[in-house]
Amino acid sequence: MVILRAEGAGVEAAENRAGTGAAATGAPAGGKAGAEGGGQAGAEGGGQAGTGASATAGTGASATAAAPRVQPPTRVVAALMVSMALVALDSTIVSTAIPQVVGDLGGFSYFTWLFSGYLLAVTVTLPVYGKLSDTFGRKPVLLFGIALFLVGSVLCACAWNMAALIAFRVVQGLGGGALQSTVQTLAADLYPLRERPRIQARMTTVWAGSSLLGPALGGLLAAYAGWRWTFLINVPLAGLALWLIARHLVEPVRSPARRSRIDWAGALGVFACGGVLLFALVQGGVAWPWLSAPSLGLLGASAALAVVVVGVERRAEDPILPGWVWRRRTIAAVNLALGALGVVIVAPAVFMPTYAQSVLGLGPVGAGFLTALMTLSWPVSAALCQHVYRRIGFRDSAVLGMGLATVIMFSFTLLPHPARPWQPALVMLLLGAALGLFQLPLIIGVQSTVGWAERGTTTASVLFCRTVGQSVGAALLGAVANATVSARLAAAPMPGLPDRLDDVSRALAQPGSLGAAASTHLRTAVAAAVDNIFLCATVAGVAALLALLLVAPRTFPVLQEND
C-alpha cells in the first residue's frame, strides 16, 4: 500500500525526525569493566551520581582500565556537534528534494532505496565500527567515517542515474555508521556523569535544530540551487569536522601489544547477515508478497547466516559481537528495550504524516508541524531527565518514561473520528517527552557500566538493536496497515473505491474522484489502520517495559570514574 508502506523505506529519516539522536550523550568513563554478576552496583543518581563503586574485573581481555579523561577542548566538542549535524541533516535534507531527483534521474519505482540503502549500510556496520573504536581508538575510526561520508556525498552529487545515486548513498551510509557510533561513544569518553547536562544541552540542540532545518534547507537548495547541492552542502561541514578532530582530538596512545586481532570473519558475517535481513524486511510486502519465495528465501538465508555468525564468534579470540553483550543483564536489557523502542517510534514518525493529511485533511506543512512536535519535546525531556534518574535511578526513570509513552500511545486509539488537530498534536507532544525520559537514562546508564575498552562495542550494540527494531517495525506495522485497509475496502458497502492498495494514495490525493460516501469510508479505513498501528506500538512499549522489569537490575553497576 503506497500511502503507508512506501514511507517505511525512509525509516532513517523518521529516526532523525523522532529525535533519537538525543541519545548522543555523555556517560562516565569507567575504572575496570565489570562483570555484572560479580561487581558491586555503583550508585546511579542523586548526590552519588558519578561516584559509583568499582565493579570487579570483567571477563576477557577487553576488561581494561579506562582511559584517563581530560577536559575536552571546545574545538573537539564543536567537531562532535558538526559530525552529529551531518547525520541528522542527511536524510531530512534529501527527502524534500526527491521530486527534483526523480525528475532529473528517473527511477521513481525504486527511489525509496535512497533511504533504505543508506539505512542498511549504517546498521550493518555499527557493530564493526564499535569494535574497531575499542581496538584502535575513537579518533582514527571517526576520521575514516567522516572521510568516507565526504567521499560518498561528492559521489552522490555527481550521480548520473538513480542506480548510481543509490550506490553512492550506500557509500555515505558506510561512513555514517562510524559517525553514529563513534560520536556517541566519544561524548561518553569526554564527559563524566555529573557534567552530562552541559554536553546533553548542546547535542540535543544540534539534533533538534538539524532535524527541523533539514526539510526547509533541502527544499530551498532543490528549488534554487539544484538537488545536487543537498549533498554538496556536506562538503564544508565534513571538511570542518575532519580538521577539528585531526588537529584537536588527542587520545591516549594504546600499546600495540594490547590490541587483539580484528575478527574480520565475524565482521563479514555480521555485515552479510544484517544486510540480507534488512533487505528482506525492506522489500517484503512491497516488491513481493511476504509469503512469496523471495521473502521466505531471504529470511531463511538470514537465519542460516545468523547461525554461522554465532559459530564464528564463539571461536574468535576477540569477536565483533562478544558474548558478554548478552550475558550481562544490564546491556542485554537495554538492547532489548531499545530494540522495542525502534518499533515504537515507527508509528508516530512514519505514519503520522499520512494520518494528518489523509484523515485530518491537513496540508504538507501542517502535517510536518504535527510530526515535528515529537521532535521538539523529545530533546527537551532528554536534557531535563537527569533530575529524574539522579533521584530514582536509570532503570526506574526508563520504566517511568515508557510507562507514560505506552499510555499515551494507547490514548491515540481512543481519539474520536474525525479528531480535532489539537488532539493528535497533544499526543505527539507528550509522546516525545515520555520517550526522551525513556531512552536517555538507558544509554547513559549502560555506557557507565563499562570501561573505555568496551564502551564502543556496547554503544554500537545498543544502536544496532534500535535500528534493527526500526526496520522490523517498518515492515511489521506496514503489513498491519495494509491488511487493515484491504479488509475495509473488501467490506465497503458502496462502489467506486480503489480495487488495489496502490491506488489508495491517488484516490486520497484526488478526493474529487470519489463520491462523498466513498471518500469518507476510505478516510475511515486509513484512520482504522493508523489506530491499529498505534495499538501495535503500545504492545511494543509493553515489551520494552517487561525487558526492563524482568531482565535489568534495579540498580545499574556504575563504574568508578577517573577524573
Task: Please sum up the structure shown.
The chain is built from 21 helices and no strands. The chain is an all-alpha fold and 563 residues long. The chain folds into 2 domains: 488 residues, Growth Hormone, Chain: A, CATH 1.20.1250.20; 53 residues.
Q: Overview of this structure, please?
A:
The chain is mainly alpha-helical. It has two domains: 2-255 and 317-550, MFS general substrate transporter like domains (Growth Hormone, Chain: A); 264-316. It is 70% helix and 0% strand. The protein has 21 helices and no strands. The chain has helices at 2-5, 11-17, 74-95, 98-105, 113-136, 138-157, 162-190, 196-224, 229-232, 234-248, 264-283, 293-315, 324-327, 329-358, 364-384, 386-392, 394-412, 422-447, 452-490, 504-509, 516-550. α3 (74-95) packs antiparallel against α7. It is globular, with a radius of gyration of 23 Å. The N and C termini lie far apart (55 Å). Mean pLDDT is 77; it is low at 1-43 and 45-70.
